[in-house]
Design brief:
The protein has 15 helices and 15 strands. It folds into two domains: 191 residues, 3-Layer(aba) Sandwich (Rossmann fold), CATH 3.40.50.2000; 174 residues, Glycogen Phosphorylase B (Rossmann fold, 3-Layer(aba) Sandwich), CATH 3.40.50.2000.
Amino acid sequence: MVKRVVLLTNFIAPHRLPLYKAVADRVMDFQMLISTPMEPNRKWDPDWEGLNVTVQRNITLKRSWRHPQGFSEPLYVHIPYDTIWLLRKLRPEVIISGEMGLRTLQALAYHKLAPKSKLILWAMVSEHSEQGRGWLRERLRPWLVSQADAVMVNGKSGARYVRQLGIAEEKIFLVTKTIDISLFASIPLDRDPHLAYRLLSVGQLVPRKGLEPFLSVLVRWVKAHPERNLEFWIVGDGPLRKTLERQVLPENLTLRFLGSLPYAKLPEIYAQAGIKVFPTLADEWGMVTNEAMAAGLPVLGSLYGQSVEELVVDGVTGWAFRPDDAEEMYSALDRALSTPIEVLAQMRREARNAISHLTIDFVADHLFEAIRYVS
């Protein structure tokens, strides 16, 4: 059994905590080094109860990420400058380093100083999420990947991305992102007719999430269907909220803004909705797809979110579209809102069944396969 594993990452999101605890159960000594308790654009309270966590000495730089899709948003670059010192103190057998930047560069430096140690890169990336990241990362990443003993990715898009960087196929391990689906799987699958078509969005209200172009298409659809009354619930907060609230809407469309909610409150919200909307312009995964499908909601989602490509079967567990094609998005929306109510009931069952295997233990076992491989 591997005695000591150290995982380096930015911070611990609440939906990731169960997975890290499951990994800790599989090794004798599991330590985490995080750059910050929480990033300033996240509304979550820091929580790592039950884990051995060290907050590193860190410098955070704020940059702007400009994506070819036309949006820009703040990007926090963490430079935890005591990484080598802490690794020398902890003496891990296996290092798992999230991201592929300066943190991983320091982890690699320790790996060279202690050649018996093994280095796994956790590449939480997709082809769309990595566009516009800058020339330095593009130059650095192929070299970092070539030095790693293994690379973990979230899905097929992430695997295609790291494959282009030159890593051998046998060193790529699929570690799909997941949540504690039991929190959402207890939600009843039945929906009253007035809830079956209620749309729900959960996430940051920032341009990258694609809510503005989606809302334009939604307004166009409800104008073309004046006999239908639709509700669109939006959970989350961010700089885009005021813009969305000022939208002039047709009388048959109601937007309800619920703001940021504690993670434990989300199952109650999913239980009151019928269709999950996820029109992202670029997401390396998208945990809301897992949440929705576990809750029994078919997903009306963007193929530029890796979770949609990986989990959603068009017409079976949801409807997929490219968000930069307004006609394709309109067609997917039209198919969703025109689906007979009895078919929606079947799609709810199919969505929950499709995600039922993706438990915390299932993903932790796959992660541990990478650890065993390098060991």
